[in-house]
UniProtKB/TrEMBL annotation:
PANTHER family in the record: PEPTIDASE S9 PROLYL OLIGOPEPTIDASE (PTHR43056), PEPTIDASE S9 PROLYL OLIGOPEPTIDASE CATALYTIC DOMAIN-CONTAINING PROTEIN (PTHR43056:SF5)
Molecular function per GO: serine-type peptidase activity
Domain Peptidase S9 prolyl oligopeptidase catalytic: 580-785
Example of a GO biological process term: proteolysis
Coiled-coil region list: none
InterPro entries membership: 6-blade_b-propeller_TolB-like, AB_hydrolase_fold, Peptidase_S9_cat, Xaa-Pro_dipeptidyl-ppase/CocE
Protein's name according to its UniProt entry: Peptidase S9 prolyl oligopeptidase catalytic domain-containing protein
Signal peptide residues on this chain, from the entry's feature table: none
A Pfam family assignment: Peptidase_S9
């Protein structure tokens, strides 16, 4: 644990001191030493064991699959740090959907070779060794993600009939054995042998396939690495027994969320083409699945002009659910007012009925009629979906009783909450006729917020319902402004009891940090809607404002704190309400922090998210500057010490603010964009056309690219800038930081470039995280004139063009 500094006694009077003199126990070592990144929560269907992924900075940032059994024991599923196993996929470079459960086996993508592996976890205390499922995939440059399981039945039986027949067959065998004469009974060894033979026969009849998003990075004939615009994305079925790979769908630029129906007859997925991103325009597709492990012709069920995501089948296979931000669908369309946010322009939940039989009602299999009968579950100015930067992430699960457990973001209350949605039939309809009438009238499903004491759900929910509608186990990942993000589990007696659960019923299985921030050092954010300008007219933007917080220190009378404006990445991401230790690092040292949700952020509806279309470098810059101006006008911060920092797209916004505004005194770019055209021409496939929407298509918009690129306006910079960059970054190539740093250095501005070895887009290693955090504070101190130093166990940072007097102050 890092140096905690002084420990003032209870009731001690805070010492008056300026920035740079506030001692804080929240050091970079404190933040990283016992910290992990949490994600990918799942609940094992047959026993309720909870699984999740841990990204461990102290193990080089690798991801490890962990299981918590029903008896409370926690075990690593992934072999140790020296094994070469790291549960992480790089499809789209951002990954996601790293593993899937199938009974007592887990299938996962390994980072090193991007191949699929299977691992037996029937005994969590001693999991089996990972076994390669896709031999040859590394040689052909194939990556896998967002995997789902398809249990393929023999041609003579559908999945439904085979599954239904299995218990009856087993019961008949047991009855026959029990009624046989004693003399004719099989010996125990013979019985076991017979059971093994039966299991082998069943396995021969049933094939297990893994349906996954595949991304090919090598030419299948030449074996040469493909340029980003030649990378091939598709949906495939991988035979677990043979490792053979069969294409199920291809031709679109991108695929996500392949989901096999419970009966095994249908495959649903989302696809989209350049220049769209998955939060712009996508299509929901369905194709029939064949007994030979192939797929029939696909049908577009929904989309094209909206952003559909997350298809999911109901457990009984009667409905297909999805999230869409269309203006209105199905039964509510006639009532929809395009100007009313409650009936459109938000990622809401929908469902459509599944056609009764393959090939029914024409060539589309009845899906056209089904789509026309789409039902909006709870049309409201709420977001039930998020920009799918990561594959495999879900925000809802349909339960066997027909209710839906879902995450949602309500702009009226900051944060992301968990709710139970019940159909109007359950609450208001006593007869089938009344139920049908309620659905036809488009009555909203009843939404009940589940009390958890948490405001920042970011993964899950994953749900397991015991057979017969019994005990329910919910797994999720969430936090709060005063609580570190944690893997949580809730167990109740039935699905109906979910809405009656209390915050105390949730159990933390793993926290992202076991280092608790001491009392008196925690800054609690205030959700602020502040004035800005959009399209020349008054508008509103949003932020979380954190005041300085340190029980041992206060500012002298007449002194105000510096402000750090944080511009998030994406740029479609959002400021999170969960505990952010890196923000607390600064607030406990005397900084105020504005975590800005500029126009383009998620959580405020499609119109707000689309403010950035064609206006990147304008709207975000205006809103970040307006946030600082609001804090100054409110008398909360020192107008001479306004700083700004951001990563990735937020790094671009930081540089653009410093190039095009004189609001800020210093800035830090973390793997940020300096040259828009260079990014458009040299980034990976997933984002290679992203700027067509944010800026404009090339070559027609080339003048706009030049006008908004910070590199082209290096002469307009007047504030010092530091750059922290991973040398293996394929999203924002390191050249971006190198050329921008050189341009500012040549101008004589104080600037620093820290290249972090082995890091990609975002820092995962403990040393890198610490260097960037302490280095940012050190840089601000050097250029703004307050004392700051790098910890002795970290390398020093060279600041070019720093005046000799300021150099001496930092020594």
């Amino acid at each position: 644990m890092g140096n905690r500094g002084s420990k003032p006694s209870a009731g001690a009077t805070p010492k008056a001191a300026g920035v740079g003199e506030w001692e804080s126990p929240i050091t970079s070592a404190f933040i990283t030493e016992k910290a992990v990144r949490l994600g990918g929560v799942a609940v094992r269907p047959h026993d309720g064991a909870v699984l999740w992924l841990e990204g461990r900075p102290m193990e080089g940032g690798r991801q490890v699959l962990v299981i918590r059994t029903a008896n409370g024991a926690t075990h690593d599923v992934t072999p140790g740090p020296d094994s070469g196993f790291n549960v992480r996929t790089t499809v789209h470079e951002y990954g996601g959907g790293e593993y899937v459960l199938a009974g007592s086996t887990v299938y996962f993508t390994n980072f090193k070779d991007q191949a699929l592996y299977g691992q037996d976890v029937s005994n969590p205390a001693a999991p089996g060794a990972p076994v390669l499922v896709t031999p040859g995939s590394e040689a052909r440059g194939e990556r896998f993600a967002d995997t789902t399981v398809w249990e393929l039945q023999p041609p003579a039986a559908t999945a439904a009939t085979a599954d239904a027949a299995a218990p009856a067959a087993a019961a008949a065998d047991a009855k026959a054995l029990a009624s046989a004469p004693v003399q004719g009974q099989l010996q125990q060894g013979q019985m076991e042998q017979q059971q093994q033979q039966q299991q082998q026969q069943q396995q021969q009849q049933r094939r297990r396939l893994l349906v996954a998003v595949s991304e090919l990075h090598k030419g299948q004939t030449s074996g040469a690495e493909l340029a980003p615009d030649q990378v091939v994305n598709r949906l495939v079925a991988v035979d677990v027994a043979s490792g053979s790979v069969t294409q199920l769908a291809g031709g679109a630029d991108f695929y996500a969320s392949p989901r096999v129906s419970p009966c095994g007859r249908w495959l649903a997925w989302v696809q989209w083409d350049h220049p769209n991103m998955p939060w712009d325009h996508t299509s929901l597709m369905v194709a029939p699945l064949r007994p030979d492990g192939t797929a029939g012709d696909p049908v577009k069920v929904r989309g094209g002009s909206s952003a559909v995501q997350q298809p999911a089948w109901s457990p009984d296979g009667a409905h297909l659910y999805f999230v869409d931000d269309a203006a209105a669908l199905g039964a509510v369309a006639a009532k929809a007012d395009p100007a009313d946010p409650a009936t459109g322009g938000w990622w809401n939940l929908y469902r459509i009925p599944v056609p009764a039989a393959t090939g029914a009602a024409g060539k589309d299999g009845g899906w056209g009629a089904a789509a026309a009968a789409a039902e909006a579950l709870h049309p409201a100015a709420m977001e039930f979906g998020f920009p799918p930067w990561l594959l495999g992430k879900k925000t809802y699960q349909v339960l066997p009783d027909g209710s839906v457990l879902a995450l949602y973001c309500d702009p009226a209350t900051a944060g992301t909450s968990l709710a139970l949605l019940k159909p109007p039939t359950a609450a208001t309809a006593a007869t089938p006729a009344a139920a049908a009438a309620a659905t036809a009238e488009g009555k909203a499903w009843e939404l009940t917020r589940i009390e958890s004491g948490l405001l920042s759900f970011n993964s899950g929910p994953a749900v397991r319902v015991a057979p017969g509608g019994g005990k329910v186990t919910v797994g999720a990942i969430a936090g709060a402004p005063d609580r570190a993000t944690a893997v949580l589990a809730l167990t109740v007696g039935s699905a109906a009891a979910l809405s009656k659960s209390r915050a105390a019923d949730w159990k933390a299985l793993k926290t992202s940090s076991s280092s608790k921030i001491p009392d008196g050092y925690l800054s609690v954010p205030e959700a602020v809607a502040y004035p800005t300008v959009f399209d020349g007219a008054p508008a509103t933007a949003h932020m979380l404002y954190y005041p300085p917080a340190n029980k041992a220190f206060t500012y002298p009378p007449g002194t105000l704190p510096p402000l750090l404006v944080n511009s998030h990445g994406g740029p479609t991401s959002a400021a999170a309400t969960g505990l952010n230790a890196q923000i607390q690092y600064f607030t406990s040292r005397g900084f105020a922090v504005a975590d800005v949700d500029y126009g383009g952020s998620t959580g405020y509806g499609t119109a707000y998210r689309n403010r950035l279309q064609g206006r990147w470098g304008l709207v975000d810059v205006q809103d970040c500057a307006a946030a600082a101006e609001w804090a100054v006008a409110a008398g909360r911060v020192d107008p001479a010490r306004l700083t700004i920092s951001g990563g990735s797209a937020g790094g671009y916004t930081t540089l653009a603010c410093l190039a095009f505004r004189k609001t800020f005194s210093a800035g830090v770019s973390l793997y940020g964009v300096a040259d828009l055209k260079l990014l458009a021409e040299h980034t990976h496939k997933f984002e290679s056309k992203y700027l067509d929407g944010l800026v404009g298509p090339l070559p027609a918009a080339e003048p706009v690219y030049a006008a908004r690129s910070p590199l082209a306006h290096a002469a307009d910079f007047s504030a010092p800038v530091a750059f922290f960059q991973g040398d293996q970054d394929k999203v924002v190539p390191p050249e971006q930081a190198v050329v921008m740093h050189k341009a500012l250095k040549d101008r004589g501005l104080p600037t620093a470039l820290v290249m972090l070895a082995g890091e990609q887009h975002g820092f995962r290693q403990a040393a890198s995280i610490r260097t960037a955090l302490d280095g940012e504070l050190y840089f601000y101190g050097a250029v703004l004139g307050f004392p700051a130093s790098m910890p002795p166990d970290l390398p020093g940072i060279t600041i070019d063009n720093l005046p000799p007097k300021q150099q001496q102050q930092q020594q």
